[in-house]
Amino acid sequence: MFAAGVLLAFAQPAQAGPTSELDEAAAQALFDEAMSLMEAGRFSAACPKLKDSLALDPAIGTRFYFATCLERTGRLASAWTNYVAAADEASTLNRRDQEREARWRAEALRPRLPWLTVVVPEAVRGAAGLQIRRDGHAMREAQWGAAIPVDPGVVSIEASAPGRMPWRMRWVAREGERATIAVPPLAAKPRSASAPPPARPGVSPARWAGYATGAAGVAALGVGAAFGVHAAVMKGRASCDAQGRCATSSDAARLDQAISSARISTATSVIGGALVAGGVVLALTAPSTDAGRPVGVSSQLTVGLSGIAVRWVVR
Fold first, then answer.
1. What pLDDT is recorded for position 237?
2. In a domain, 228, yes or no
């Protein structure tokens, strides 16, 4: 039976604080149903019920079983956090047996935890409105540079700031691994080419389109240069040989960042050069007059990991 043996110390969920009678009854019903599911080995179905029971009635036993359920479903960091919390609550209530059991579980789990450190250099911190997110959740500044346990699986790190290109990286966390991810400087977003003043009589729409295309190309070249610098910096910091074999997982992460930035740099530089060349050709070969009709041209350059798009409107 699942609840036999060492789990007998938590056979009844000891309350850590007062709750309403209705909440208590609902919490008990959810707890009982979750225990039946765990007895049947259906841990994925049991965990949400234990979580809801814990929200209604923060009982030590419920938290302990919730941690056990999380552990059995592979969410090791979440399980460790709840074991530690259960031990602390038991210590406050002078429940020594429960405290010992929960701390033993937490310590036994600790060597299996993946640990991630997200480093935000001072140069990056200066960006106004900077936000760092892990798996979609904002990381407080106090967490930057600190080793934090994470659940095994894909971990997503994102950085964003107003007026700057967003940055994103994924790390596959495995049991017992440690990794450090450094957030690179966020490149400035290329500004949409300003709409030129109304064309004077004698300037054709095609020529203004050439000017706008050239401006978009210059912006793309700037983005390519920024990513190229970042690629060089990250490659220099990675201790890897010519075959891509790296000394540590942190070095491998840096090399991956360098490769991604280099690819973006190459693509933006090539396309930027093509846009500049095309703009020059279009401006030089366009008719010089358009029956005196005023012309307005607007262009927009969009750069992303999936590609580059240029759009202009002649009116």
1. 77
2. yes
- Domain containing 167 equals 115-182
Where do we find the tokens 């919730």?
Answer: 66
Count CB atoms within 10 A of the CB of residue 21: 7
Please give the helix or strand (H or E) that residue 308 lies within, else none.
strand 307-314
105 and 121: one domain?
Answer: no
Total of domains in the chain: 3
Residue linked to tokens 């940055």: 167
Higher pLDDT, 275 or 289: 275
DSSP label at residue 7: G
Sequence-ordered list of residues with C-beta below 8 angstroms from that of 312, at least 6 positions apart, any chain: 193, 209, 212, 213, 216, 297, 298, 299, 300
User: Does an H or E element contain 158, and which?
Assistant: strand 153-160
- The owner of tokens 């047996």 is 97
Least confident of 35-44, 208-217, 243-252: 208-217
Whether 85 and 124 map to the same domain: the answer is no
Q: E strands within the chain?
A: 115-119, 131-134, 137-138, 147-149, 153-160, 167-173, 178-182, 297-304, 307-314
CA 53 to chain centre: 30
pTM assigned to the model:
0.55
